[in-house]
Specification:
The complex is a heterodimer. By secondary structure, chain A is α+β, with helices and mostly antiparallel strands. Chain A has 6 helices and 9 strands; from the N terminus they run ααααααβββββββββ. Chain A has helices spanning 12-25, 30-42, 44-57, 73-82, 91-95, 97-116, and strands at residues 127-133, 136-142, 146-152, 160-167, 173-179, 183-187, 196-203, 216-221, 223-224. In chain A, α1 packs across α3 (44-57) and α2 (30-42) crosses α3 (44-57). The chains are: A alpha+beta, B mainly alpha.
């Protein structure tokens, strides 16, 4: 056996799979480990390989014994995520607190307008969602007819597309379209409060079927402003 | 709590449900603390890591896909990845990792896998599957199987493994990779 490790000495079809296995085992030094994590963020195929190895080795998890849980941990998690107050508002409304305020002003003006011009069509409430997938975030805003969605984070890799889905009460995702630009406006009338928006990573052109095939990168429910 | 319930809780957490998040924490904190303690080997760091792990669980719950595997496996993967990131960020030098290696109690972890296959973490996975994993590890040469288990459970790096087994780093990597291919071939059979 040679003492010199050459990654190209392995069959090409096995190289990524071995890298995924090494990532899951955790044996790689920091730079290589980070490189795999970075690639996996945007490569659905590598993500699948990692998930497959996690499943193959998951039986070993039974060997982990329970550990001590300090009572301070959960309050700190909550404080970090939701702020320190006792009964904080949902994250969406807090983040858009000032918008919500201006939203009430708009609503008041509209209500006045309705009184002044009774024939004025009633304005549907605006809905927003922040789909936070870590390095990849989508801010969505729905005015009753158009969904405006803006991306911060990397574009999909070569040969791949982000696809947007709406998941209603029946739990079945329906495609709203591909998200290729930094900002897209999609015409739809089938959204309402509580409908979850989700972005999946798909092959170029979108999922070949009616349902997502790639990993869901970010999701959040639409909430009223 | 069964794996199914953990999956359901995770899906509710993905929708922003804070009471589901609290229930998820209550059901899984002890196990994840055990994972972090085993890999980090340093109890002082565990609380900090626990906090980070559960923040990530809240933020990334939308990425959990129930059809891909059990909820508990996903949570343990999040905890292991975070612990490994911390471990690899430490300067690697001989001796530093020996402390963690000592954590081994001499029992083969796979004995426990076989014992506990019906436990919460194995959940819906049949006893037969646990048997198959044990058998596949048995097919490997002893030190390769030990290296794979040691890496997975304790976070041993290639450098740690090479030191332990007294072989050059590249040799270690080559034979661990051969072991992984054998394991994959057996498990996917």
């Amino acid at each position: 056996m040679s003492d010199t490790f050459q990654s190209d000495a392995w069959p090409p079809e096995d190289r990524d799979d071995l890298l995924a296995a090494e990532y899951v085992l955790g044996v790689l030094p920091a730079p290589e480990r980070q490189a795999v994590a970075k690639r996996a963020e945007l490569e659905g195929a590598l993500q699948e390989r990692i998930a497959a190895w996690e499943n193959r080795l998951a039986m070993l998890n039974a060997a982990y014994e329970d550990g001590p849980v300090s009572p301070e941990v959960f309050p700190r998690v909550e404080a970090a995520l939701f702020g320190g107050d006792e009964a904080p508002a949902p994250a969406g409304r807090r983040r858009f607190g000032w918008l919500w305020l201006s939203g009430t002003l708009v609503a008041a003006v509209l209500a006045l307008a309705v009184v002044i011009w009774p024939q004025f069509p009633p304005q549907p409430a605006e809905l927003v969602a922040r789909l936070d997938g870590g390095a990849l975030v989508f801010e969505a805003r729905f005015d009753g007819a158009m969904l405006d969605i803006e991306r911060s984070g990397p574009a999909a890799g070569a040969g791949q597309d982000y696809q947007l889905w709406a998941i209603g009460e029946d739990g079945v995702p329906r495609s709203l379209g591909l998200l290729r630009g930094d900002r897209e406006a999609l015409a739809t009338d089938a959204l309402g409060p509580g409908v979850t928006l989700a972005v999946s990573l798909e092959p170029e052109g979108g999922s070949p079927g009616d349902l997502p095939t790639g990993p869901v990168l970010a999701a959040a429910p639409l909430t009223s402003l | 709590m069964t794996v199914d319930q953990i999956s359901l809780l995770l899906q509710r957490v993905a929708g922003g449900d804070r009471s589901a998040f609290e229930a998820l924490y209550a059901a899984t904190a002890a196990k994840l603390s055990g994972v972090l303690t085993r890999i980090l080997g340093n109890k002082a760091e565990v609380d900090d890591a626990m906090q980070e792990v559960f923040i990530r669980v809240w933020q990334r719950s939308a990425q959990f896909r129930p059809e891909r595997g059990a909820g508990m496996s996903w949570l343990i993967a999040v905890a292991r990845n975070h612990a490994l990131d911390r471990l690899r960020a430490r300067p690697e030098r001989a001796g530093l990792r020996q402390e963690v290696a000592r954590d081994e109690d001499g029992q083969d972890p796979l004995d426990r896998v076989a014992d506990k296959a019906a436990g919460a973490e194995a959940g819906l996975i049949a006893q037969g599957e646990a048997r198959r994993v044990v058998d596949c590890f048995d097919e490997l040469e002893n030190d390769r199987a030990a290296a794979i288990k040691g890496a997975y459970l304790q976070g041993l790096s290639y450098l740690d493994l090479a030191e332990r087994h007294g072989v050059p780093l590249n040799t270690m990597r080559t034979w661990l990779r051969r072991g992984l291919l054998r394991l994959r071939e057996c498990l996917d059979r």
